[in-house]
Amino acid sequence: MYLFEFDATDPYATKIIAVVDQLKNDLESGKIKHDWHIKKLLKYFQKYDINLDPTDLYSMVKKAPLKRVIKNIQGDRVVFKGHESPGEIDKNKSDQTVKQMAKKALKK
């Protein structure tokens, strides 16, 4: 979390930033598991008096600070960064390899 992320004019935004940081710490420390569904994430936010709906989450995942903790929401499953399934990691590596090969081919 960075100091510039705190918006003194909006205490709700500051609260969201603090809760996302807490979520990240809980994941890293092993207090919570990484296999979550949207409902569980919504309940986590509600525990800290932040009421969101699923559409809010879909848009928040694309922006900081939630973008640094959650990679994607697939269906109703939340995919945290660093906890992708092996198939997703392999796909990402193969996509990178194809991009690198295409760049090399264009240079020739």
Give a short summary of the structure:
The protein is mainly α and 108 residues long. The chain has 4 helices and 3 strands.
Fold and architecture overview:
It is a single chain. Helix content is 54%, strand content 10%. The protein has 108 residues and is mostly helical. Strands 1-3-2 form a three-stranded antiparallel sheet. The N and C termini lie far apart (43 Å). The model has no long low-confidence stretch (mean pLDDT 81).
Give me the secondary-structure topology.
Blueprint (H helix, E strand, L loop, with lengths): L10 H19 L6 E2 H10 L6 H7 L9 E5 L2 E4 L5 H22 L1
Antiparallel strand pairs: 1-3, 2-3
User: Strand count, sense and closure of the main sheet?
Assistant: 3 strands, antiparallel
Provide the gyration radius in Å: 17 Å
The count of DSSP E runs of length 2 or more, i.e. the number of strands, is: 3
How large is the count of helical segments? 4
How helical, in percent, are the residues?
40-55%
- Our count of domains comes out at 1
Mean residue pLDDT:
81
Beta-strand residue percentage: 5-15%
Which stretches of 5+ consecutive residues score pLDDT under 50? Answer: none
